[in-house]
Write a structure and sequence with these properties.
The protein has about 220 residues and is mainly alpha-helical. It is built from ten helices and two strands.
C-alpha cells in the first residue's frame, strides 16, 4: 500500500469516527424518544390516556416534590421529558457542528432537513425552537460535554428558575398523557421515524426503532 493510499485511508477513518461520534448518539436518542412517545400514543389509542404520566396538573407542582417522587410516582412523566431533552441536546449539537461533518453526497443537507423537520414538529406542540435549544443546552454538562443523567436532570427541574425553561415540554407531555394533541404527537413520531431511518442507513446499523421495541420483548 502506498503512503498516499494510507493517508487517504487514515483521513477516511478519522472522518468516519468523527461522524459516528455525532450520529450514533443522535440515532440512540431519536430511537429512545420515539419509543417512549409511542407508548403514550399506543395507550391513548387504547385507553384515551397514558395513566402513568398523569401525576401533575401543571409543571410548577414539581417544585414541592422530593427525590422519592422523581424515583417513583413521577418517573414515567419526568423520564419522558428527560429523554426528549437529551434528543434536543443531540439535535442542537449536531446542527451546530454540521459544517465539520463530512457525509456522502447530499446527506449533510438531508440530515439538516430532517433535524429541522423534527424541531418544527415539536414547535407545533408549543415547544418552540429557541426553547428546544435552551433545553438541549441545559442538558449538556460542560466542560465534559456529557449529558445529564436522569437524577441530575431531576435536580435541575427542582430549581424553579431553571425548570421554567422546560415547562413547555412538560406541558406537552401532560397534554398527550391526557389524550390531547394526538395529531401533534403523530407528527412528532413521524418526524423521528424518518430521522431514525436516515441515521440507520447512514451508519449501516439496522433498524434502531425495531431494535428498541425488540429489547422490550
Amino acid at each position: 500500500m502506498t503512503s498516499q493510499q494510507q493517508r487517504r485511508d487514515n483521513r477516511r477513518a478519522q472522518r468516519e469516527a468523527h461522524n459516528t461520534s455525532y450520529l450514533n448518539p443522535l440515532r440512540w436518542h431519536a430511537a429512545e424518544a420515539h419509543h417512549r412517545l409511542s407508548l403514550y400514543a399506543t395507550s391513548v389509542d387504547r385507553h384515551d390516556c397514558y395513566q402513568p404520566a398523569q401525576v401533575l396538573s401543571e409543571p410548577r407542582e414539581i417544585d414541592d416534590k422530593d427525590p422519592a417522587w422523581f424515583a417513583g410516582m413521577g418517573v414515567a412523566l419526568v423520564s419522558s421529558v428527560w429523554m426528549v431533552a437529551c434528543l434536543f441536546a443531540q439535535m442542537t449539537r449536531t446542527r451546530l457542528d454540521m459544517p465539520f461533518l463530512r457525509l456522502p453526497g447530499k446527506d449533510d443537507t438531508k440530515l439538516t432537513a430532517l433535524i429541522l423537520k423534527a424541531q418544527v414538529a415539536f414547535a407545533a406542540c408549543d415547544v418552540y425552537y429557541a426553547t428546544q435549544s435552551s433545553i438541549g443546552t441545559d442538558v449538556i454538562l460542560e466542560p465534559e460535554g456529557r449529558l445529564r443523567s436522569y437524577r441530575e436532570f431531576c435536580e435541575l427541574l427542582s430549581q424553579p428558575d431553571r425548570r421554567v425553561w422546560a415547562d413547555p415540554l412538560i406541558w406537552f407531555h401532560l397534554a398527550i398523557a391526557n389524550g390531547e394533541r394526538r395529531r401533534d404527537l403523530q407528527r412528532v413520531l413521524d418526524a423521528l421515524h424518518e430521522l431514525s431511518g436516515f441515521l440507520d442507513d447512514s451508519l449501516a446499523g439496522g433498524s434502531s426503532l425495531r431494535a428498541r421495541w425488540s429489547s422490550e420483548l
